[in-house]
Amino acid sequence: MASPSPTNPTTPSHYTSSQTALLLLDFHNMLVDRNPSNALALATAVSTKKWAKSQGIHIIHCLIDSTSKPFPTAKNIEHLASAMSLFKSAAGNEAPSLVEDANGEVTFTRRIGHVSALKSKGLMEYLEENGIRSLALMGLIASHVREPGI
């Protein structure tokens, strides 16, 4: 592993804050509420977001589109469809404490069944257009919205 160095492009310290983005992944109310340990993750995300904003780091919210339908070749399509009905009843909203003071922040959504937030429509173009070369990821496990009881 390379040592941190401002001259080494394989390390985060190589990039300025304006070339860095914090991706906040899948902090949906439904996911936070269904697992008590997610409350600590949310609190940590809120404080990390405040710090990142103070450093001039881009803040990007990445969510699952609660109005989407699974694509036809998605694995466990029946499970995904039932998870989406729960999502819709919970409105699929992001935790309110994370969207407070969201001025200048952007949100991207992805279709249910896409595990990676990098599949969010427009995200890669946004990163390129804004010269973002370094990502910090923080989020909840939402792969196929698999939480206890779903």
What does it look like?
This protein is α/β, with parallel strands linked by helices and 150 residues long. Helix content is 32%, strand content 16%. It is built from five helices and four strands, in the order βααβααβαβ. The chain has a four-stranded parallel beta sheet with strand order 3-2-1-4, with helices on one face. The N and C termini lie far apart (39 Å). This is Isochorismatase-like domain-containing protein.
Write the layout of secondary structure elements.
Layout: E1 20-25, H1 29-34, H2 37-54, E2 58-64, H3 77-89, H4 96-99, E3 106-110, H5 123-129, E4 134-139
Parallel strand pairs: 1-2, 1-4, 2-3
Summed up, what is this model?
The protein has helices at 29-34, 37-54, 77-89, 96-99, 123-129; strands at residues 20-25, 58-64, 106-110, 134-139. It has 150 residues and is α/β, with parallel strands linked by helices.
